[in-house]
Amino acid sequence: MFSSMEGKSVLVTGGSKGIGKGIASVFAKSGCKVLIVARHEDKAKACADELIKAGGMAAAFGADVTDLKSMEKAADFAVRTHGGLDILCANAGIFPQVKIEEMSPEIWDETVDTNLKGAFLSVKACLPALKKSGEGRVILTSSITGPVTGFPGWTHYGATKAGQLGFMRTACIELAKYGITVNAVLPGNVATEGLADLGPDYEKTMAASIPLKRLGTVEDIGYAALYLASKEAGFVTGQTIIVDGGQIAPESLEALAQA
């Protein structure tokens, strides 16, 4: 039985949709006070309103993870609104699919700035409040793409997700003296709003490579993040949890066919 998360203050970047929204929902259902941070404040507010309607405690703030002052304002808002900040879920990320031959330096830079620099700036901005918590938690949303696997069109994305883990392994050492843990969840194929637009055939093809024969849900990722934020995970830092339904386990589709 996990200790109660009731009243914990959580900031989720990129929390208005997709995996971020799933993470926010799981924390809200667990009694946490959640701040949804997104570039578009109206979308962040719409998500927060959904959580409130479902019985949760939530607020919204418009901020850009690539801008330190913007994220400092978000952290300050969390402290003023929810009485402090205990947990940062650095989830914001983009993944424009472009192969190397067609990729411009600008697309590369935008992806690195959002996914990798954005994670660093989010942590830096939230650090003063997390230090005051005494049991601060940082959970990065990385991916199996980059640290473990590759996919055409995502060299820039994969580089940022692998880079997040390099950041994590040193950050966890630097921040341990404040009682702050730093860990990461690595999602596999997850059903999000964007995937639904591609149709059932596409989803079926993706699910075929997963031993559990289904895509993950955004809540699956949320519950992994919730564990890493719990009191029971207080001695876990610098670690990763792969949440992929066994996707990286088989060496080929033939291995699944023989199962």
Strand content: 5-15%
What is the CATH third-level topology name? Rossmann fold
What percentage of residues falls in helices of 4 or more residues? 40-55%
How many helices? The count is 9
CATH architecture: 3-Layer(aba) Sandwich
Name the poorly predicted regions: none
Oligomer: single chain
Total discrete domains: 1
**Can you tell me the overall shape?**
globular
Strand arrangement, largest sheet?
3-2-1-4-5-6-7
Could you explain how this protein is built, in words?
- With 259 residues, the protein is an alpha/beta fold.
- The protein has one domain: NAD(P)-binding Rossmann-like Domain (Rossmann fold).
- It is built from nine helices and seven strands.
- Strands 3-2-1-4-5-6-7 form a seven-stranded parallel sheet, with helices on both faces.
- Helix 1 links the parallel strand 1 and strand 2.
- Helix 1 packs across helix 8, helix 3 packs parallel to helix 4 and helix 4 packs parallel to helix 5.
- The mean pLDDT is 95.
In short:
With 259 residues, the chain is of the alpha/beta class. The chain has helices at 18-29, 41-53, 68-82, 105-133, 155-175, 193-196, 200-207, 218-229, 253-257, and strands at residues 9-13, 33-38, 57-62, 87-90, 137-141, 181-187, 240-243. The mean pLDDT is 95.
Walk me through the topology.
Elements: E1 9-13, H1 18-29, E2 33-38, H2 41-53, E3 57-62, H3 68-82, E4 87-90, H4 105-133, E5 137-141, H5 155-175, E6 181-187, H6 193-196, H7 200-207, H8 218-229, E7 240-243, H9 253-257
Parallel strand pairs: 1-2, 1-4, 2-3, 4-5, 5-6, 6-7
Helix pairs in contact: 1-8, 3-4, 4-5
